[in-house]
Amino acid sequence: MTIAIETHGLTRQFGDQTAVDHVDLQVNTGTFYGFLGPNGAGKSTTIKMLTGLLAPTSGAVGILGLNPFDTDQAIEIKRRIGVVPENLSLFDNLTAREYLTFVGRMFLLEKTVIQQRSDELLALMQLENEHKKLTLEYSHGMKKKLALAAAMLPNPDLLFLDEPFEGVDAVASKVIRNTLAEFVSRGSTVFLTSHVMEVVERLCTHVGIISAGKLVQQTSLEILKQNNQSLESCFLEIVGKREGAVETLSWLDHKKSSPEDANDDSQPGLESSQP
Q1: Buried b (16+ CB within 10 A) or exposed e, 122-154
Q2: What is the 3-state secondary structure (H, E, C) of the chain?
Q3: Hey, where are the domains in the chain?
Q4: Whole-angstrom Cα distance, residue 189 to residue 186?
Q5: pTM for this structure?
Q6: Which residues contact 196 (CB under 8 A, 6 or more apart)?
Q7: Range 3-262: architecture per CATH
Q8: What count of other Cβ atoms lies within 10 Å of the Cβ of residue 257?
Q9: Are 65 and 3 in contact (CB under 8 A)?
Q10: What pLDDT, in 10s, does the model give residues 161-216?
């Protein structure tokens, strides 16, 4: 089995802060891989390094058997991957079709191919009737769908998706899930970050859990099922212990007094108004 993503000792520091700490990933080709972690755990920083947007402080990265930080190999990688980044990075003053046309030309696709795929993608993402709108006018969910359409337009071997379902309505979410499942079934690979456990458990074949910059778990969903363990319980057990999660608030320990209790003459410190 070939490897789509592989890292050894992947580390990224920002001054004295270590955002990603010696992460060893292995994602096989044809895998739907869910990359999970609490806010600030290092998920987006990891994706930026895997896609060549951010250089690691130390460690090695292999994407589709190539090095994203070798100039010649980096260009070949970019031809073969699609990315929906954290901040989307769309061009505000283009329509959806204009943006997809631009992306298609950047990937040197034929005009007829760009038009056909754009038609299908815009219909799939329910954006075909928004042809007069600039992306500046789009809602967050619409921008997410357009970014995913652009990532899939070149028919990549590997998709990096950073919270692709955030702000997307339920109908579109189901369509996207089905499309991604079909994308993987043909032998392509998806690397997904999401905070929605249900989506990850339904779609992904493998998961990695990162906490405070460290990869603390990497397993298949099949193994979790064999151990009669849900993904949510596994995540909370590992991350909750590492993060020292507080489960309750001190002032919610006791039942709140009702207005009737506040007027109860028998409470200490209150004097009866009766003669």
Answers
A1: bebbebeebeeebbeebeeebbbbbbbbbbbbb
A2: CCEEEEEEEEEEEECCEEEEEEECCEEECCCEEEEECCCCCCHHHHHHHHCCCCCCCEEEEEECCECCCCHHHHHHHHHHEEEECCCCCCCCCCEHHHHHHHHHHHCCCCHHHHHHHHHHHHHHCCCCCCCCCEHHHCCHHHHHHHHHHHHHCCCCCEEEEECCCCCCCHHHHHHHHHHHHHHHHCCCEEEEECCCHHHHHHHCCEEEEEECCEEEEEEEHHHHHHCCCCHHHHHHHHHHHHHCCCCCCHHHCCCCCCHHHHCCCCCCCCCCCCC
A3: 3-262
A4: 9
A5: 0.84
A6: 165
A7: 3-Layer(aba) Sandwich (3.40)
A8: 10
A9: yes
A10: 988 888 888 888 888 889 999 999 999 999 999 888 888 888 999 999 999 999 99
Which residue, chain included where needed, has tokens 């690691």? 56
Q: In the structure, what pLDDT confidence band is assigned to residue 262 with cuts at 50, 70 and 90?
A: low
